[in-house]
Design brief:
By secondary structure, the chain is of the alpha/beta class. It contains six helices and eight strands. β2 (about 20-25), α1 and β3 form a beta-alpha-beta unit.
Length: about 250
Amino acid sequence: MARINGINTGEAVTKPLYNAVTLVTGGSRGIGRAIALCLAEMGAAVAICGRDASALAATAAAIVAKGARVYSQVADVTRPEAILELVENTQRALGPISILVNNAGIGLFGPAHEKSEADWDHVFNTNLKSVFLVSKAVIPAMIQGGGGDIINISSLAGKNTFAGGGIYCASKWGLQGLTGCMAEDLRDHGIRVSVVCPGSVATEFSSKAKDPAKALSAEDVAHAVAMLATQGSNSFISEVQMRPLRKG
């Protein structure tokens, strides 16, 4: 199921991402929604995917309200055929993807020895395999176009360990390694691969972020993504670590 909306704002080249096409996975809610709205406000055409059709429709409408073009599609980013369809449809609707934000992710916590193989596969397929698959689908056009940005949303759990975080931390540590190696593979093609590592973010995803004053907001993460997407053409910020100003 897909939805395409188009709007011509008549705002020429006054926005830093004007004419850029970005794909945000898990873009219907939480951090992904904030990123999609932020990039739309900066002038980008935005494609979003997720599993909740109603949430996707609401976010797509919010993007259009900012004067941006949008393409939305219900898609499971752990399935290669769904990803290829998503990327092809996005590029047909909006043009070649120049910014990819791999945001889709899930959390599953508790002692690793109490979890099942199905739990392991579910977390790794969503948090790590999807990044590999979506990036693989987008990279050829970026190489052909001479550059692009791939921004992976990880976590400080990819840098630290904690009780009950075995499967989740392992997936995010893997994402750190994948990001670093992709960056080295692609930098000579003019493609920057960066990772954003937030601490606790006040969204429905985080059970730890009970006090919003002691947590990051989804918009804070979106601001970091915007910074990476607009950095100077000869610079390369490979990693951003983010923490709430006040400790919880």
